[in-house]
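User: Hey, my collaborator sent me this sequence without any context and asked if I could get a structure. I don't really work with proteins. Can you help?
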Amino acid sequence: MLSEELGTESPVRLLSTNSFCARAEILLPILNSLSKKLGADAAVKLLPTSSFCVRVEALLPILDSLSTAIGTKNEVRLLSTDSFCVRAESLLPVLDRLSDTLGTESAVRLLSRGGFCALEDELMAKFPDIEAVLGEKGAMRILSNPYLVSMDSSQWQEFMDFIRIAQPGDTMLYVGSILLMGKCKRVGWGICLDLYQHASQEERTRPGFEKLVDAYAHEEL
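Assistant: No problem. I've predicted the 3D structure and written it out in structure-token form, which is a compact way to encode the shape of the chain:
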């Protein structure tokens, strides 16, 4: 039946998902309903999401309002994110507030990040300070970076000291490298600030700065 409706690839994807298999009898009619409402591709993107499968009865009532507010594509993006599904009801007002402040696309981008959903209140309190240094787009990139949103309070303070002193263009180049962000977090942003302040122009390029961080980490081993 699934193959007839969805072809071969999609049923394989669904049936290789434990959360779908565990509730397959309940989810099959829901899959049919979602396929008619959202399209088969969108339905298949939602149902491999474990939290959506587990909470589907609670989430179905918000589908129509979400689709109206942010469009089907954005709705599917959020509801295929486990961390959003877990807290969907409490995050809907957050989505409205962020959409008013930042626009729908930016709000969806943030709320489709697991780390952001879990720490939304704490992270949004940091938004104005980051925006004052790096602008709205810069703050968005910071708050959607998994290495940065997981920092503790002392790491955040050191990071804020870093971005206030570093050239904004340099900061954004560094943030664009997930690998470099992980290295900076391990070394410590206070150390990174000291390295930056004593670096030459060439060493402040992204490759140059990464070499400085690598060299410091190697010396500390």
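In plain terms: The chain has a mean pLDDT of 87. You can pass these tokens on to your collaborator as they are.
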